[in-house]
Write a structure and sequence with these properties.
Keywords: Signal. The protein is α/β, with parallel strands linked by helices and 333 residues long. It is 37% helix and 20% strand. The N terminus is likely disordered. Bound molecules: beta-D-galactofuranose (GZL).
Length: 333
């Protein structure tokens, strides 16, 4: 489970909308940056090392960050790590060389960050964690964490299942598509879900494997699950993209997703709401990617040496099929 330095939720906020995208240079180019200290135009310079572009959630998160930087007048140096930790580490080192004012990133996995974060600290560059957490014991390596409580998301998924099967005693066989191995959302969503269902022996996770948060892998792993398990009652997917890939596999196997196999998912992208409307997904636990505006506010504060909360969590909901149609038009991602 992701190490939580402090669980003080000092601001439950709902991130705002998005504006036009700003121009961004790849992290490997550009001059030194700063808040007027020698940066080309006096703008605050933020280096952002993104996980990749693996899911609809990630695409929305990237757009939110880019649009918010534009709106805030912040020069953004953006890097896409293609889900590889070594690329994120390289990007952070480049940002250090470029003397950016602030570094922000979503750690693709929880471990292995202390060395590069110490380099940032020694260079006097504050770091903000967004979306995913690290398990570093040294909490001085980053100023704040902005994102969701993934354990709570897993618990919400489990609570829905307990309610859905309340009063029954027949076995309920569950297959689980985990997110990226070693990532905070995968570790915590798994732990939260297991915690929520552990009190009732009818619930059995008969298979659990990573689908790496992508549709393609989600479909592939679900195909394998269907081949090796005749009697699957429930799919718990750690994100919508894997759930949507799995739904294709379920239908190709001649079964009805949402009916023969109930589908629980996390994120809340538009396609998942459409699938809920089509009765193919039963419940979606929301995970808000629209963190851009809050990230820019935090970046300005840390650059100015102001105090910031150690943890800023986003407000999120749980949506069931009967709410999908009404909620769909208002979905921002
Ligand atoms: C969660 C985020 C996860 C999403 C996936 O905050 O890190 O990564 O749930 C995304 O869709 O790929």
């Amino acid at each position: 489970m992701a190490h939580r330095a402090l669980r003080i939720i000092t601001a439950a906020v709902l991130a705002g909308g998005v504006l036009t995208a700003c121009t961004t240079e790849p992290a490997t180019t550009g001059t030194t940056g700063g808040t007027g200290k020698g940066s080309s135009d006096g703008k605050l310079v933020l280096g952002f090392a993104q996980v990749g572009a693996e899911s609809g959630w990630r695409t929305a998160n990237t757009k939110s960050v880019r649009d918010a930087a534009e709106k805030a007048g912040i020069e953004l140096k953006f890097s896409d790590a293609q889900q590889k930790q070594e690329n994120q580490i390289k990007a952070i080192r480049t940002f250090i060389q470029q003397k950016v004012d602030v570094i922000a990133f979503s750690p693709v996995v929880e471990s292995g960050w202390d060395t590069v974060l110490k380099e940032a600290k020694n260079a006097g560059i504050p770091v903000i964690l967004t979306d995913r957490a690290v398990d570093s014991q040294d909490t001085s390596l980053y100023r704040t964490f902005l994102g969701s409580d993934f354990v709570k998301e897993g618990q919400e998924a489990g609570k829905w299942l307990v309610k859905e099967y309340g009063g029954t005693s027949a076995p309920v066989n569950i297959v689980e598509l985990q997110g990226t191995t070693g990532s905070a959302p995968a570790n915590d969503r798994k732990a939260g879900f297991a915690e929520a269902i552990k009190g009732d022996p009818k619930f059995k996770v008969v298979a659990s494997q990573t689908g790496d948060f992508t549709r393609a892998k989600g479909k592939e792993v679900m195909q394998a699950f269907l081949k090796s398990h005749e009697d699957i009652d429930v799919l718990y997917a750690h994100n919508d993209d894997m759930a949507l890939g799995a739904i294709q596999a379920i239908e190709e196997a001649g079964k009805k997703p949402g009916t023969d196999i109930k589908v629980i998912s996390v994120d809340g992208i538009k396609d998942a709401f459409v699938a809920m409307k089509e009765k193919k997904i039963n419940v979606v636990v929301e995970c808000n990617p629209l963190l851009g505006d809050q990230l820019m506010e935090l970046a300005k504060k840390v650059a100015a040496g102001e105090d910031v909360p150690r943890r800023v969590e986003t407000k999120e909901g749980v949506f069931t099929q009967d709410q999908a149609a009404a909620a769909l038009p208002g979905r921002q991602y």
